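INPUT
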Amino acid sequence: MSNTEARITLAVDAMGGDQGPQEILAGVSKAVNVSPRNTHFVLFGQEEVLGPIVEHDLNLNSNQVSVRHAPEIVGMDEKPIAGIKGKKRSSMSLALNALKEGEADALLSCGNTGCLMAGSAIRLRTLEGIERPALCTIWPGRERYFTLLDAGANPHAKPYHIVQSAVLGSNYARVALGLVRPKVGLLTIGTEEGKGNEVIHETHSMLKDIDGSIINYAGLIEGFQIFENVVDVVVCDGFVGNIVLKACESLSKLIRSFLDEELRRNTLRKTGALLSKGAFKSLKQRINPEQFGGAPLLGLTKNVIKAHGSSNQNHICGAIKIGLDLVQHDMLAQVLDDICETNEILRPPNPIQHSSPNS
Amino acid sequence: MSNTEARITLAVDAMGGDQGPQEILAGVSKAVNVSPRNTHFVLFGQEEVLGPIVEHDLNLNSNQVSVRHAPEIVGMDEKPIAGIKGKKRSSMSLALNALKEGEADALLSCGNTGCLMAGSAIRLRTLEGIERPALCTIWPGRERYFTLLDAGANPHAKPYHIVQSAVLGSNYARVALGLVRPKVGLLTIGTEEGKGNEVIHETHSMLKDIDGSIINYAGLIEGFQIFENVVDVVVCDGFVGNIVLKACESLSKLIRSFLDEELRRNTLRKTGALLSKGAFKSLKQRINPEQFGGAPLLGLTKNVIKAHGSSNQNHICGAIKIGLDLVQHDMLAQVLDDICETNEILRPPNPIQHSSPNS
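OUTPUT
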């Protein structure tokens, strides 16, 4: 039991998600097998549900996995504040508390996104110098993966918030994608000088100010360029990011079901589809990569990872890997340095009142 | 030559687009064959280029098709104002003039979008009571097609502009999709009361005010609902609309090329793909339907249709059909009525200064 290496503890909200605790715990089980021995998993949820799965179904190592009882469950349809404040003994709420109290280094949930974001904002503070958190997603591009943020944490973003997202996203791309100097692009319409809107013009100018020293700013990019790997970090406000993310997820599902329908239309097509079924399986994995099953909520004092509600055990395992990577690379310390430097550079020409969230 | 029926004249910018005049004129030729005899096409472009194609290659009926010489061409990379003001004798510019002077009822161009929008704004006025034009696109949904606007004409939209888009889009959906009471949805993030941002809250309230009498307002919708045919008309500001449109177009191309790569990876897959090739062809047509090759710039005193730069002859023919439908259904008159009624309803509680475009 004694271990001189620093122990890493991951809190898991084991009751959230569409697939139920069985699938989440199967994901934890996979993660246990591929994680260092100094990793500990605390599963939050109803003991009578989780206990039998942990002990009998999965036979999880009790040195690495423990269960913390949480009688309540935040439903997938609950409203953000009601779900968190109204259910203080839910798996999500107690997991957030454990994170806040330093009992865990990172948290994973595939539960209600709105509640997780609201709960994180209420229970955890933002890192010093950061005004708003940002949800950061990883997407498949033509040649390699890229990150897009904010995917919906802050739908009222001011230019300075988008600049902070650029710093946060760059740090995340370094850890999650292994890039040394990830290229950052600001999402807009039309890349000519003067196109876009006021928020874009101001953000663009601030990003140019921190280019080189803190981020590697590649300039403005349009919607059609995001999948072409023109940049590694696409930044936009949470309103645009959330709509683009959901529209693209939905379009990708639509194309898959159109393809499925067309392939079943006659015997010839069915036969062909059977022969090339490996291609469809690979396609699915390329579009929805399991190794990037989680999206971190960046800018907080702790690492919070959101996995999709529909995550399977492989997505859960991928999301856990992301959480552990963030802890191991101590991304939060690097973010703190970068944000401090950003504020130093931007404060003189662009006075920002950090005390007020409405500045 | 004498014809008692009202003659419809369509001006065609025959030099724009990526595929060259040959493809555009092939599209016109297809359209001539399926259009009423009272339809006349005026092709704007270099006489020495268009003449031989019209007379020899396509042998187009000279009673229905005429060529108007325009020595200059607006390039696909030119800046909006420079392309229009700097090239007064371009095919696009002269076609816009013909529309302005009443020599044509509608205009089709697959040239530079920015220049066409700027040129339309400069040369043509907006309909009385309308402040800004909106670009309206047709998208494939799970069960049927739907419209989305504004796709980029106005990236600084105020709530009132988005309300006008709802009225414009409803009228367009009636003509282009044949719907009697198209359902309108306002694109946002999260449909709970209070989610979204200020512009959304104000727009939502105004849309509720004109629900029933002028539009059929179904409320807020999220990005993942747009392809699910929850509504027939998706409204949003031009910044969001343009980014979503381009991201989705680009994602759809990416999925197609991933699929193509996967299907070529080994002989078994290649054989399967050959057998089911009909499915891939149908899929392409479902995702990029040729009958909706054009997007109208709505809200102007004349019908302006933008076709994609990469349009083939079938897309061109589809876009022409849209232009003719708008003229035949006299959509502009209906829009004028609806906007007048909208302004009557919204003016008392929401005083709007129609004289100033910055109101």
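end of record. Chain A touches chain B through 66 residues (CB under 8 Å).
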